[in-house]
């Protein structure tokens, strides 16, 4: 599972897998960065190519992306939407299905409250993955949180359908 916290300056990502034990394990996390002085098309190319490289390296079965929030600054929202667009394009080109989660849902799933702060998200990511400290930078922890959100929600949905169907195939 690849989780992405999109951004045009810093894109946080995390790759998490669950094995036989069902305990999630962090495979890789980090941040793709672009130079603020570069024109937007150049920055979008870096984001697209970096996302494509992550998808090629890890071959995840799914990708989760934090959806846009609508802030007061319209220009920031539009620029972030461009970044999300090239991220979604890279996933489509790799044949990887994408699920989107709002920032509030990610925080609520990981921390227990939708208004959680970045340090709280990082702390809980470390706890859930049994790490000694939160992934750095904070954007990487956010990317991991998006991946964990998808795994948690998908597990709950699978359990619900097993319960409703009595374990029969859908």
Topology of helices and strands:
Layout lengths: L1 E4 L4 E9 L5 E10 L6 H19 L4 E4 L7 H21 L3 E4 L1 H8 L7 H12 L8 H28 L5
Parallel strand pairs: 1-4, 4-5
Antiparallel strand pairs: 1-2, 2-3
Structural write-up:
This protein is of the alpha/beta class. The protein has a single domain (2-165), classed as Nucleotidyltransferase, domain 5. It contains 5 helices and 5 strands.
Sum this structure up briefly.
With 170 residues, the protein is an alpha/beta fold. It has five helices and five strands, in the order E-E-E-H-E-H-E-H-H-H.
Kindly report the average pLDDT value.
92
User: What's the total helix number?
Assistant: 5
Q: What fraction of residues sit in β-strands? A: 15-25%
CATH topology: Nucleotidyltransferase, domain 5
Extended strand count: 5
CATH first level: Alpha Beta
Count of spatially separate domains: 1
Helix content: 40-55%
Query: Low-confidence parts lasting 5 or more residues at pLDDT below 50?
Result: none
Characterize the biggest β-sheet.
Answer: 5 strands, mixed
CATH superfamily: Ribonuclease H-like superfamily/Ribonuclease H
* Distance N to C terminus: 23 Å
- Give the assembly state of these chains: single chain
Structure class: alpha/beta
Keywords:
globular; 5-stranded mixed beta sheet; alpha/beta; Nucleotidyltransferase, domain 5; 170 residues
């Amino acid at each position: 599972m690849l989780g992405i916290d999109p951004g045009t300056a810093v894109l946080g990502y995390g790759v998490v897998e669950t094995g036989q034990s069902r305990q999630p394990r962090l495979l890789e996390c980090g941040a793709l960065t672009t130079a603020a002085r570069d024109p937007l098309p150049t920055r979008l190319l870096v984001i697209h190519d970096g996302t494509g490289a992550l998808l090629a390296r890890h071959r995840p079965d799914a990708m989760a992306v934090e959806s846009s929030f609508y802030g007061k600054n319209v220009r920031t929202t539009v620029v972030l939407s461009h970044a999300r667009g090239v991220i979604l394009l890279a996933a489509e080109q790799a044949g990887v299905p994408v699920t989107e989660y709002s920032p509030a849902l990610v925080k609520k799933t990981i921390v227990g409250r939708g208004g959680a702060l970045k340090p709280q998200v990082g702390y809980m990511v470390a706890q859930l993955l049994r790490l000694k400290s939160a992934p750095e930078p904070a954007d990487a922890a956010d990317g991991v949180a998006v991946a964990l959100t998808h795994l948690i929600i998908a597990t709950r949905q699978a359990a619900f359908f097993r319960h409703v169907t009595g374990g029969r195939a859908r």
